[in-house]
Write a structure and sequence with these properties.
The structure holds two protein chains of two kinds. By secondary structure, chain A is of the alpha/beta class. Chain A contains 13 helices and six strands. In chain A, the strands form two sheets. Chain A has a four-stranded mixed beta sheet, sandwiched between helices. A two-stranded antiparallel sheet of chain A has the order 4-5. Chain B contains nine helices and ten strands. In chain B, strand 4 and strand 5 form a beta hairpin. The chains are: A alpha/beta, B alpha/beta.
């Protein structure tokens, strides 16, 4: 084995061991983003987009069963079977959007001829949209059943298909944001503090006393941090998908590519700070000065549309804006990498700027 | 005796016009223990670090094992072992893992347990460095300088801050390194240590070497100049009393 490869491998192995034995840091690096995800996840779950229906069925025939089955198959409906009085009360409180009453004679036959019968619906006039939408769906179901019973062919029909991109909730917006935040914080804080500690304690100087240039150690550290951050990103996406129904519209590959570029940018910032600083006390203020504006103004928690135009045009150039914007475009709209030229040029420029700057300010002791 | 290290007119001047080392010259023989003594700020550590290639040289030359150190700094580091004054190591790594890592950095193959046994730390092999006592840390630090079987080791104040037992234990270790033919340069504040360990010592003050000879010779020269000790020197020291009462065994 080539000596440089052997040195790099030895330092990478050591860096990996140092990382995974630091259990506290691992837990904390996951705890905060997962807590944030959970808060936003439960918030957007509570808001629920489904339409609440209170159903009272007086009929017992086959047709009424079919009707209820079809009603229940509509995903947007959340159906509770309750009595008429209860439903009326719930409707008054605004807990249900629509009350549906199936009469006793619904779908019954008299000498092979279906009896005329009507389903009664009542909706909350204060929330007309959900009620009317639900009403339309019910009208559609009923007229289908009607045609079945009267054996009249259907001539006109509407074909529609669900497009998932139109169906995204706030959680789908927030996950790429929290992921970008995690990438930034692991890059800047994770590296800056641990690396400057090794510098201040003299552990880095001990490497300088060997024939290996300490830049190998920087590479080893960067590689381990890249792996660790990718693993964290994977865990966050898994948690978001499994527990809170995160929708990935685009490709995971593109998503991962943006993550990697983002990690490299923020690692560069972390190493620049660690390389410039003499000890931990210098790291905290500088790291915060860099990350706080990005955390608040890069649109990771809320869209930047409401910003005054001057602020928006400044924040357009933040590295975290490019990262979170492209992650969001991929995850929410399924945009491919080639359709994000502005973000990629922005990230490319930052990548170069950050590393040139890091090399300039870096001091080994 | 053949010379292994030659220092010629070595000078260190910092940007703020501090003259840390003012053109010193000396040579070290192969296989000897060479001491550099002097008060704090005399330039001992700066001198060592310039020889090792850890600090840039303002002017002057260092020839180590026939190589001009500034020409081939990495080759020099490959052949020497350096113990730094503050012996810090990566956190969360076991002694054996650190030794293996250092061995890899030099491209050498070692038996970590054997090396730890040499410095009396075999039973601590799977400990983390932060679990070691001061004396154990220094012995481990010396072990890391031996992974590449160096021709010369540099020990910068290895016994500072240690209790008398640990210090004497370290003397044994250094004697053992010398007995294998490795040249040792050591800096220290302790005169009895220099007298016990060193074949020759250089005494530095204010960036210059003010005396260089064997400890016995230096004492003889002082006496021949008519020096009278301030007090009657007893044949034993308080150090001897301490060791006699508390024993030679290590407490760490």
């Amino acid at each position: 084995m080539n000596q440089n490869t052997r040195s790099l491998l030895a330092l990478t192995k050591a860096s990996l061991k140092m990382y995974y034995r630091n259990k506290g840091a691992i837990v904390f690096s996951l705890l905060i983003p997962i807590a944030l995800l959970s808060i936003f996840g439960f918030l957007s779950k509570g808001r629920g987009t489904s339409i609440q229906i209170g159903l009272t069925n007086h009929a017992s025939g086959e047709v009424s069963k079919q009707f209820i089955e079809r009603l229940k198959s509509v995903k947007a409906f959340n159906i509770r079977e309750i009595t008429e009085e209860e439903a009326a009360a719930e409707l008054g409180k605004g807990n249900i959007d629509l009350q549906v009453i199936v009469p006793e004679n619904f779908g019954t036959m008299e000498s092979d001829k279906p009896l005329a019968s009507s389903i009664q619906t009542r909706f909350n006039s204060a929330k007309p949209q959900s009620g009317q939408i639900a009403n339309l769906a019910i009208v559609e179901i009923v007229s289908n059943l009607d045609r079945q019973l009267t054996h009249s062919p259907s001539v006109l029909e509407v074909k529609s298909e669900g497009v998932s991109t139109n169906n995204l909730g706030y959680f789908d917006f927030i996950l790429p944001g929290i992921l970008s935040m995690t990438i930034m914080q692991l890059g800047i804080f994770g590296v800056a503090f641990s690396f400057v500690a090794m510098k201040a304690s003299g552990a880095l100087r001990r490497i300088q006393a060997t024939p290996v240039h300490p830049v190998y150690f920087v590479f080893a550290q960067a590689f381990v941090r890249l792996l660790v951050t990718l693993a964290n990103a994977f865990i966050l996406i898994a948690v978001g998908t499994y527990f809170f129904g995160f929708h990935m519209v685009g490709s995971y590959f593109s998503f991962a590519m943006v993550c990697i570029v983002g990690i490299l940018i923020f690692l560069g910032i972390g190493f620049a700070i660690a390389g410039w600083a003499k000890d931990e006390t210098q790291v905290a203020p500088v790291a915060n000065l860099i990350q706080l504006p990005m955390l608040l103004l890069s649109g990771i928690f809320f869209p930047r549309d409401g910003f005054p135009s001057w602020l928006k045009s400044i924040t357009d150039y933040f590295p975290l804006t490019y990262v979170s914007h492209s992650l969001r475009k991929i995850a929410n709209e399924g945009v491919s990498l080639v359709d994000l030229p502005v973000d990629f040029i922005g990230m490319g420029v930052w990548l170069v700027v950050v590393y040139v700057f890091a090399v300039r300010v870096f001091k080994w002791e | 005796m053949p010379v292994i290290l030659e220092v010629i007119n070595l000078t260190k001047t910092y940007d703020n016009d501090v003259h840390a080392v003012k053109g010193i010259s000396f040579s070290v023989n192969r296989g000897e223990v060479f001491g550099i003594l002097g008060p704090n700020g005399a330039g001992k550590t700066t001198t060592l670090e310039m020889i090792e290639g850890l600090r840039s040289i303002t002017s002057g030359d260092v020839i180590l094992d026939g190589i001009k150190t500034t020409d081939q700094p990495y080759l020099i580091k490959q052949r020497i072992g350096i113990q730094l004054q503050s012996s810090a190591f990566f956190q969360n790594l076991k002694l054996t893992e650190l030794l293996e890592m250092f061995a890899d950095l030099y491209g050498s193959t070692i038996n970590p347990l054997e090396l730890l046994a040499d410095v009396g730390l075999k039973d601590k092999a799977h400990f983390l460095v932060k679990k070691l006592s001061g004396g154990q840390k220094q012995r481990f630090s010396i072990a890391t300088t031996l992974v590449n079987r160096p021709v010369m080791v540099f020990l910068d104040e290895p016994t500072t801050g240690l209790d008398p037992q640990a210090r004497r234990n370290l003397w044994d270790l250094i004697t053992q390194i010398k007995s294998r033919g490795t040249t040792v340069i050591i800096t220290t504040h302790y005169m009895e240590e220099a007298k016990f360990l060193c074949d020759r010592v250089a005494i530095m003050d204010d960036g210059k070497i003010v005396a260089l000879d064997s400890p016995d010779q230096l004492i003889r020269q002082l006496l021949s100049r008519g020096f009278k000790p301030h007090t009657e020197v007893p044949p034993a020291t308080l150090d001897d009393v301490f060791i006699d009462l508390t024993g030679k065994t290590l407490r760490d």
